[in-house]
Amino acid sequence: MDGGVMKKGFTLIELLIVIAIILIL
Questions:
Q1: What SS3 class is residue 21?
Q2: Which tens digits make up the pLDDT trace of 1-25?
Q3: Spatial distance between the Cα atoms of 3 and 11, rounded to a whole number of angstroms
Q4: Is the pTM above the cut of 0.90?
């Protein structure tokens, strides 16, 4: 997992971005 995401915490927007990336891939 990427440690850079954890330093500022998981926001709802970041979670949506991760889901979008997974769907694109």
A1: helix
A2: 565 555 666 678 888 999 999 999 9
A3: 15
A4: no
What whole-number distance in Å separates Cα of residue 25 and Cα of residue 20?
Answer: 9
Alpha carbons within 13 angstroms on the beta-carbon side of residue 21 total: 6
DSSP element (H, E) containing 12: helix 12-24
Q: Are 15 and 6 in contact, with CB atoms under 8 Å apart?
A: no
Q: How far apart are CA 8 and CA 11, in angstroms?
A: 8
Q: Token digits for 2?
A: 């990427």
Nearest to 2 by CA among 12, 16, 14: 14
